[in-house]
């Protein structure tokens, strides 16, 4: 039963990573890679437990690709210092301004029209 839960959590984590990336809620940075790693581990554990070797190999390769990508991200962060990786910020927030409901970016604040007057 625990192996089934691990597999389902892995599948859900991979779908979450892909969904967030596709919706531009995250970039292809550290967060995306960590979600991919967690998902690949979960699916690999499930595949090995069930003797599904093609799926196990696929997920182990997926895991290795994620580890290499994380290593590259880490080396870039060390070169840049403490800067935030722009790929880890939502697309609408890349310039440091939150773009959400009810928020007017600073550079457009003077353009707002007050309809209650």
Architecture overview:
The chain is mostly helical and 117 residues long. It has one domain. The chain contains three helices and no strands. Helix 1 runs antiparallel to helix 2. The longest helix has 28 residues. The radius of gyration is 20 Å and the shape is globular. The chain starts with a helix and ends in a 37-residue tail after the last helix.
Annotate the secondary structure layout.
Elements: H1 2-22, H2 30-49, H3 53-80
Question: How is this structure best summarized?
Answer:
By secondary structure, the protein is mainly alpha-helical. It has three helices and no strands.
Q: What's the shape?
A: globular
How does the helix and strand content classify structurally? mainly alpha
Distance between the termini: 63 Å
- Helix content class: 55-70%
* Low-pLDDT sequence parts: 100-117
- Tell me the count of domains: 1
Average of the residue pLDDT scores: 81
Whole-angstrom Rg: 20 Å
Strand content: under 5%
The biggest beta sheet is recorded as: none
Could you name the key traits of this structure?
mainly alpha; 117 residues
